[in-house]
Amino acid sequence: MPQPSATSSIRLMAYMLLLALVLLGVKFGAFFLTRSNAILTDALESIINFVTGGVALYSVYLAAKPKDQDHPYGHGKIEFLSSGLEGTLIAIAGIGIIGKSVYNLVYPQTIARIDTGMYLTFLTGGANYLAGRYLVRHGTRHSSVTLIANGKHLLSDAYSSLGLIIGLACIYFTDLLWLDSVVAIIFGSFITYTGYGLVRNSISGVMDEADHQLIERIIQVLNQRRRQNWIDLHNMRVIKYGSHLHIDCHLTLPWYFNLQESHKEVELFQETIEEELGDVVELFVHLDPCLPPLSCRLCTKSDCKVREHVFVDRVEWTLSNVIVNEKHAL
Question: Cation efflux protein transmembrane domain: which residues (predicted)?
């Protein structure tokens, strides 16, 4: 059974799919009333919103499925593929919009009822803005790449609608019909760039590109909650599987700790990370014994009875020294 957070995400995406269908009808109604290329850009992007909303709904559902023998790390990677597909379709729509707008610069067409088009565009843009903000907030809370990508797409749609209204207002007050195609080209370019960004992020996730911002966040928490027994930390790697995180690292503990004591430290180490990131963390820790007297120089353990060198200085864990597969030394 999916977790409660996953169930709420699936339900949310179903509502967003229904909203996309309603807004799609409103935007195409505005286009048929006005015959404006600029409004057509908004309507075509709504087709993408609806298609990608369906893909996002399926990917969120699939990502929520539990791990199995064929997918030992879960099904979360599907979210990156969903985000990539969404970005590709957005980019294609943007290129199509630019092409049609260039054609109508050469062969202009009549525009009608611009004021009605502006009202309808304002209505749909406001709805997309509110929906996008909620999706990004919900996706960030539950570490869902798909929800965040879909939310950012809706926000970009809302911002383009705002610019579109400004452009239509200029056409309305100046009667310069060529402005319609110019506005469409500008927003077609913006849409294409948005699609490229989503594809780029998707490829980064599939290729397990290091998320330095996330690793720095983890390191900051570990520095703040650092225990004396955690002598050193290095070779940290974080891999995303949808909303789940797989973390590998090497942790140096006192060489004389028995298995039970070492296991307790690993549990405390994991609890520290989970308090910051939630229970979506799968942690694999390789334990290293300290190496006297080298480790003694940076060890802050005050009750060590076998210390072979006086404490010199504590090594502050940073992104640059934690991701390297090398023990720290002074």
Answer: 15-204
